[in-house]
Amino acid sequence: EVQLVESGGGSVQAGGSLRLSCTPSGIPFANYAIGWFRQAPGKEREGVACLSRGDGVTLYAESVKGRFSILSDDARNTVYLEMSSLKPEDTAVYYCARHYRANLYRGPMFEYEFPYWGQGTQVTVAS
Question: So what's the pLDDT on residue 54?
Answer without folding.
Answer: 87
